[in-house]
Amino acid sequence: MQLARLKRFALSLPQTSVVKQWGECLVHKVAGKMFFLIALDGELVDGVTFKCTPEEFDELTDIDGITQAPYCAKRMWVRVGDLSVLSEQELQARIRRSYDLVVANLPKKTQAQLGKL
């Protein structure tokens, strides 16, 4: 999946923002909480990181090219180093799932503002 399409999809989710952090990483957030990260090598995607459930974590890390995300692995985050291991549709579904998991842990008032209650 191309960088432009990845960014466009992630930013299409309600009340999403993006900041450049940790060098060359585009960190996508909802209500200030990270849900998706794009690691860059210049203008090329060097990998993506997203949140998942414990069950999804086991399933995903069994796939070659997907590992525990460094620095946030204990929170059930995975890093996809080889984007070809997931179809574009599957990757979009995983990004959306990550967004939903993060929103579910936000305070009820914030969820209501996002239209999630």
Quickly count the helices: 4
Provide the residue-averaged pLDDT: 89
Number of separate structural domains: 1
Rg is 14 Å
Question: Uncertain spans, ≥5 residues at pLDDT below 50?
Answer: none
Structural class designation: alpha+beta
Major sheet details:
6 strands, antiparallel
Helix content percent band: 25-40%
Order of helices and strands: HEEEEHEEHH
In angstroms, what separates the terminal alpha carbons?
32 Å
Proper CATH architecture? Alpha-Beta Complex
Overall body shape? globular
Total DSSP E strands: 6
CATH level 3 topology: Aspartate Aminotransferase, domain 1
Question: Spatial order of the strands in the main sheet?
Answer: 1-2-3-4-6-5
Strand content: 25-35%
> What is the CATH class name?
Alpha Beta
General description of the model:
By secondary structure, the chain is α+β, with helices and mostly antiparallel strands. The protein has a single domain (3-111), classed as Aspartate Aminotransferase, domain 1 (Alpha-Beta Complex), CATH 3.90.1150.30. Helices cover 35% and strands 31% of the residues. It has a six-stranded antiparallel beta sheet with strand order 1-2-3-4-6-5. The longest helix has 17 residues, at 88-104. The protein is globular, with a radius of gyration of 14 Å.
